[in-house]
Amino acid sequence: MEDENFNKDLEDLLKMLKQLMEKQDLDSIPGVPPEQLEQLKLFMSQFDELKDDMKFEIYKLDPFTKKMVSVFAGQLREQLGKQGLEDTDSKPTAEEVVMHKEKELKDIADTNERYDALIATIDEQLKNSNLTEAEINALLDKRVEIESKRNGEI
Q1: pTM
Q2: Mean pLDDT lowest for which of 16-20, 53-57, 119-123?
Q3: How distant, in Å, are the alpha carbons of 78, 117, 144 from that of 123?
């Protein structure tokens, strides 16, 4: 039970941090090297994919660290208020995930690499059995658009 509470606190904490990072200009944080900011952005962008793998490592944390995470999560929940918590629990739509990934990848110079990553993201979203027909069609349209760009048709 204690581990379940800790897992929820840690997941909530990381979701809230991810939410804050998306709303803030992180480049203006004093004393944090740009390399660390990039690593943090990368980790947070891949959080949803990594969180299940992290749970095994979490059990190795000492009780003090677990308590610190719980306290910090509680303080952040309090500061964000009710609205902030509701936003962290809502999952982005498949189209929002693809749009977010597209923004992340805009700085990659290799267009084929960027297109491959976007197509992989779309394919991953298409595996969701809860998608509506309209969402599936929108994702497939986006996939066709990216394939056309990759093949130089657009």
Answers
A1: 0.43
A2: 53-57
A3: 37, 10, 12
